[in-house]
Amino acid sequence: MKVSNLINILTKLARKPGAARSLFQQYPIAELVEKAEKGRQSVFPLSELDEFGKALLGAPIYTRHITRYDTLEKILIVPPLYTPLRLRKMEELMREPLFTDVDTSCKFGGFNSSLPVAVASMGSTPVYNKVSLDVAKASAEAGIPMGVGENVATVWGYSERVKPSQPCFKERVMTYLENLGDNGKGGVFIQQNVEDAYDELWNRVYSDPDITPYIDKGLVGFEIKLGQGAKPGLGGETFVERSLAIKLADKYVFDADPRTVQKELYERHSAPGTYTPEILRSMIRIMRNNYPRARIWVKMGPYRDLEDVARLCSEEKVDAFWIDGKEGGTGLSPVTALKDLGLPLLAVLGKIMKLSRETTIDYVASGRLVDGADVVKVLCFGARAAGLGRPFVVTAYAAGAEGVKKYLETIKMEVQLLTSAVGKYSVESLGPEDIRATGRDVAEALGIKSIYD
Amino acid sequence: MRLILRVQAEASRAVRSWLDSHGFLELLPPIIGPVTDPGIRGAKQVTIDYYGREYKVMSSAILYKQMLATAFDKIYFFSPNIRLEPLESATTGRHLVEFVQIDIEEADVDYKAAMSTAESLLTHVVNTVAETARQELEQLGRKLPRFKTPFRKITHAEAVEILRAHGDQINPNAEIPWPQEEKLSKIINEPFFITDYPKGARGFYDKEDPQRPGILKDFDLMYPEGYGEAASGAEREYEYSKVLARLKQSGENPAKYGWYLDMLREGIRPTSGFGIGVERLTRYLCGLQAVWEARPYPKVAGIYSP
């Protein structure tokens, strides 16, 4: 490893080991060396141990030097002693309520759900696609909505696998739909990006006789993707092998033409899409026109004009409006985007809190949410549900569908514990009164109380 | 079946004779191309892989009509179209996977002129076939009303209002759903036009009225007696930058439409036109329950057939 060589040199040169170490810690030497060595490759956050498609990426907010913005760590859930809603619950139950009496079921985005949690639309990245069926099965059985991200059908096939180890699009959708219980809880929402539009994915789903019965039951939605947390303003980025690159050569832009240039992996770029209020409004109307029985979800990245977009989506009555904070996960994003692009989740939540009072859509928020406390905090800010992605990948790798199921059980229990702690027995009654910011400046900026108030 | 197809042949003859005598030139329709009409409400296009490149089978040849009208002033063709319709279309009586539409386009006229062409043509065809296929229609037990121009015209907003007064709440920003369209056709019960659809209800090629943003200069022509849509038409967007914006608004990838956009950038004439479904016309003339009765070897969504 050349970085350690460099440290040695620096150490020798400085003849002051302490000073050199401090320089190394405070200045991004490794990053510069990596750029010098690897050039374009170092634009993406893959270390020598990572391989594309096997890494789980997202803004490294807990790394020193990089946490430059406030996170949910600055929010605490603070219970009161006086709990009139607990008294009411006691009257209903004729006994003292326990945390297990908290009703976690809710409705958002046109779907019923057993938990205020949705599985974020994860796309074609191999690391996720490989375990996607485990996640589909477990989330269907648990009765929570699940997304299917862009590029899956285009890259891994619609109804037949293009690679034996990688499930195709329809397997992901049908595994989910066939494992749903008969309690009417759950629903699948499907993204189509600019390139998927080549293959008319939504039309194909809408006219697929295997999926039609579920569309009729209101269990299918289509999600317009307006960017993602980790790279607002940028399109999908990924690496693909040559055989796949040749197949996709007409649909995507590559760093080199795979038909004429031979190399191991090709950078595959997709477009972020072009929007104006007029374009977005028309798109939503056309979707309502073409797919009247599908739910319409809109997912956007942490853009600075998110309030304007939310108001438009509320006027057009979209079923769910999902905002991914900059901490959101990604199959692949340039390092520079992970570090410096977009609004962090906490800022997004502050906007959701204000928007939820003046608009009528269901907000879903996401971005490095991991446990039940994260879910509760997001709901306190006025979101109807929390979107989670990477936790499902990790738990599926750890223990398959069973692992995801157990993970969801912990989320449910944590949500019940924390909701009951603030004296409430339905997740739908959580509000900003239940949280406090650890600092006065954050509290003021968000419009909530601080722990010192 | 023999009777029905004979009526159909009479109808085609009447269409051609009227169009030919009014200066329209019959051309051969393109069947496959790099891209086809995306404005097909929930149905899917057929894609064929040919030497590693993709072709679409025409769901409608609309994109070719503008260029051909630019070159020949007034054109038409009998265009075979394929749309992989969803299962819900199997029971409407009005949808086929494979069908033929008569595509008509005229340069330098507005949508009102196209409507006038459509009503004159349809009136000619219905009244002529009532004579030339009198025997067949009698045997089918069909008595056709006599059509007279001009047809009644209502706007899309008025149609929504009429339906609301009859107890149907429908989305004012979308196409009128099939059952309600049928209902409207029964309520009004004479041939009529619905004009001025809201943007979002139709394809990107229907021209937006510059004086009334959000409203399109387009129309549907309806049969009476609950038979629903006879023809669909519009004044076309023909300016490059407007078409590009409209493509984005309908969620399309402009890169797919390269040849079409190139043609617009070169400059084409403004045109208006419409398409009449041959099987639907036959269904109306013969008074049939469903369009599949109006063609040999019909293909209906969800039914595999020769």
Which fold name fills CATH's third level, the topology of chain B? BirA Bifunctional Protein, domain 2
- Proportion of residues in β-strands of chain B: 15-25%
Structural class of chain B: alpha+beta
Distance between the amino and carboxyl termini of chain A:
52 Å
On the 0 to 100 scale, the average pLDDT of chain B is 93
Q: Find the structural class of chain A using helix and strand composition.
A: alpha/beta
Query: Largest chain-chain contact?
Result: A-B, 32 and 34 residues
Rg on CA atoms of chain A, Å? 23 Å
What is the CATH architecture descriptor of the largest domain in chain A?
Answer: Alpha-Beta Barrel
- Helical percentage of chain B: 25-40%
CATH topology category name of the largest domain in chain A = TIM Barrel
Number of domains of chain B: 1
Low-confidence stretches of chain A: none
Strand order of the largest sheet of chain B: 1-5-6-11-10-9-8-7
- Average pLDDT figure of chain A: 87
Characteristics:
heterodimer, A: 453 residues, alpha/beta, 3 domains, 3-stranded antiparallel beta sheet, 17 strands, 15% strand, B: alpha+beta, BirA Bifunctional Protein, domain 2, 8-stranded mixed beta sheet, 36% helix
Describe this structure in words.
The complex is a heterodimer of chains A (453) and B (306). Chain A folds into three domains: 2-43, no CATH class; 72-234 and 272-328 and 337-446, TIM Barrel (Alpha-Beta Barrel); 237-271, no CATH class. Chain A is 40% helix and 15% strand. Chain A contains 18 helices and 17 strands. In chain A, the strands form five sheets. In chain A, strands 5-6-7-8-12-13-15-16 form an eight-stranded parallel beta barrel, surrounded by seven helices. In chain A, strand 3 (106-108) and strand 4 (111-113) form a beta hairpin. The radius of gyration of chain A is 23 Å and the shape is globular. Chain B is built from nine helices and eleven strands. In chain B, the strands form two sheets. An eight-stranded mixed sheet of chain B has the order 1-5-6-11-10-9-8-7. A three-stranded antiparallel sheet of chain B has the order 2-4-3, with no helix packed on it. Chain B is globular and about 55 Å long. Chain B has helices at residues 2-21, 62-72, 111-132, 134-140, 156-165, 178-188, 240-249, 258-266, 278-286; strands at residues 25-26, 32-33, 47-50, 53-57, 74-82, 98-107, 152-155, 192-195, 218-223, 228-235, 271-277. Chain B has one domain: BirA Bifunctional Protein, domain 2.
